[in-house]
Amino acid sequence: MNRFTGKTVLVTGAGSGLGRAIAIAFASEGASVAAAGRTAASLDETVALIHADGGTAAAFTADVTDSAQLHDLVLTTVARFGALDIAVNNAGIFRGGVPAGEVEEQDWDAVIRTNVTGVWLAMKHEIAHMKEHGGGTIVNISANLGAHRRIPNAAPYITSKAAVSALTRAAARDHIHQNIRINAVSPGASDAPMSLRPGETEADRAERMKSENPLGRVAEADEVAAAVLYLASPAAGSVVGADLVIDSGASA
User: Fold this and answer.
1) Hey, what's the torsion of the CAs at 158, 168, 3, 237, to 10 degrees?
2) Whole-structure pTM value
3) pLDDT tens across 189-199, in order?
4) Which of 4, 168, 172, 221 could form a disulfide with 31 if both were Cys (CB 3.0 to 4.6 A apart)?
5) Which position among 4, 60, 94, 157 bears the catalytic label?
6) Phi and psi torsions of 152, nearest 5°
């Protein structure tokens, strides 16, 4: 399939995990991909994987907590590829592991600043460009933890991702009249480093998932990417403000 031939896609947090899988999936379907993140070396690895498969991509370093860097990221993406048609706001962090009342203030601030304010700032600059150029599509990466499910000792992350789900719906209503479609994907445990507990191996995680998830396994990164590509595609043309949960039945 080549659903995205001629389209430019910006993916934040593209240096590893789900962000890398999403970037590769878009490139495999013909998109030019701006792979963005904080670490140049990991972004270069993502771009190399895309190039090795015959795709088109470039790496751009940017911190989603810095509005000026995100403004420049949009401008640089457009300068390199000529457009910004689709944006996937994936960058996020996890801090915590303790009860809500014991979370350190700096950890709370870091999670909210990255996971919530970072998504809002990214959308702010993406929307500013899209509304002046005929519209576009945005997919925010939230999580099943938040609006859909809670677990102990993850209050900063849960709060931040619930906010991303709500922010997505609010922004979707605000900007659909400008031909900007905004939706979210909420993964659960997936084949990405963030789903590993401290000291846990992939084999340990696989064993844990047999009893923790109804499906008995984590979602493959490609399965999450497929949901993102669907929401970004013309096939989802009437999907506005959706929050698609991909979590092997954990929140069912």
Assistant:
1) 140
2) 0.95
3) 888 877 888 88
4) 4
5) 157
6) -70, 155
